[in-house]
Amino acid sequence: LKAPTRPAALLLGLGRAAGGGGEMAAAAALRASRASREEPPPTVSSAVTVVLRVRPPFPHEAPHGQCTRTVDGRRLLFTSSAESQAAQQAARARHVECTYDRVLDMLASQEDTWRTVAPVVEKALDGYNATLFTYGMTGTGKTHSMLGPRLMQSAFEGKSAPRAEDIAGCNQRGLVPRVIERVFAWLDGRGGGGAGVAVSYLQVYQERCYDLLRPAARASEVLRVREDGGGATYVEGLTRAAVHSAEECYEHLIFGFSNMAFRATAFNEQSSRSHSVLTLTITAPGGQGQTRRSQIHMVDLAGNERWDTFGPGVERGHARELTAINRSLHVLGACVQALTQPPAVSKRDGRPVPTHVPYRDSALTMILRDSLAGNSFVAMLCTVCSCSLYQVQTLCTLRFADRAKRLQLQARRCEVSDPKAVLRDTQSEVTYLRSLVAQASKAGDMHLQKQVSQLESRNNRLASENETLKEQLLALAKEAEHARLAASDASAALGNSLARGQRSLLALPPRAAGAGGAGGE
């Protein structure tokens, strides 16, 4: 709730009527406190940080040669093979030199990758939203860069989450564990101080959203992507679990990762068939009675693949997955293309016409709308393979990365007003206005007294509205607790019923069971 703004001239006039500079200073302090909450935080302009990582060829790929060469830390040279039919169709792309924020060659480590995106994560600790993307062909190291082999192995083998110390001691750990380490190190440095972290994990599989943190009984429920009153998108019903340590984060991560859709392909024995979004929500006290609530989205996109690499024997289920993946990635590319185009000019009046961005054409782009639209700092890790066998896919990734680096973002701190702070300021202002009423009454200035009374009435109404809001929040919390208890009781009752049914079946005489089976035949 926002209190009405006082005209500056009125407050200054009241200070003069009271006959003292202290009252004017108090009025200025009240105005500054109120304005700090009413005015939106300033935006910070930035471009997308684009990092290209090159996977070295496997032994069976080495005889086919390489199509990429790292020039330096920012430039990469792409050279297509003259024998390639696709290269002949795209002769203009025979030699292409690309420039990015960072090019990581085949010898780059996981630590090198982390250093390139760490500044974006630091922005999230300062109250801004941050998004980390991975984009590239299947089998080029996207999930390896995100998680690292230790966490991937634990999830694939169904093992429990490793200890945070073991993960921290692994040089091959990916971006996700390094982000988790940094966030909790930041929390430890604050000594708590009212800050907290929550984790959510979802996948987009064949254009449907699924909550990866739900138990098996509800894992198949499809979630809906919606918009709030301010135009921001959210996933309705998505689990957001509070975590207090890195170990808890890893437990949720491995549980969710093991629920994802995978399939063996020609490029990867464990190829993800869905896009996944792991989100850390960081809440911390801000200035002027406000709360900062920023998010770090870690997006591992499924790999783009070509139909002609599978032949006519592709399974029907695999074909549906491939179609859905390529379609969503195509829409993502179309959104990036639209966002980087200059607005058209109306022929009628010469005014700029906003470019249509097709967010609604895919569930993935609906979820990532806020990140793509600009209210976030974004780092995009694009992965390619240097082998000439995949030069067409490599060229597609390079073109996408080139478009992405032209995106311009306008991020602002995510701050919300604390109702308690608003109420405290309102009460202070009421006390101050009452003192002015008393002094104005002595001076006989009835006109000012009437204006002050009106302001006092409005502030009283605001205080009442804040009290009502607090009561509503308390009632909602009680309803949520009742619902949780009811669900727990229902689950226990169902378990008891199943146990009784099982005992009844075991108690049947063997002869009766045999006779029943014979009769059934």
UniProtKB/TrEMBL annotation:
Cellular component, GO annotation: microtubule
Domain Kinesin motor residue range list: 47-407
Mind telling me which SMART domains this protein's record contains? KISc
Gene Ontology terms: biological process: microtubule-based movement
List the molecular function annotations (GO) for this entry.
Answer: ATP binding; microtubule binding; microtubule motor activity
- Could you tell me the superkingdom of the organism this chain comes from? Eukaryota
Report keywords, A-Z.
ATP-binding, Coiled coil, Microtubule, Motor protein, Nucleotide-binding
Q: What is this protein called?
A: Kinesin-like protein
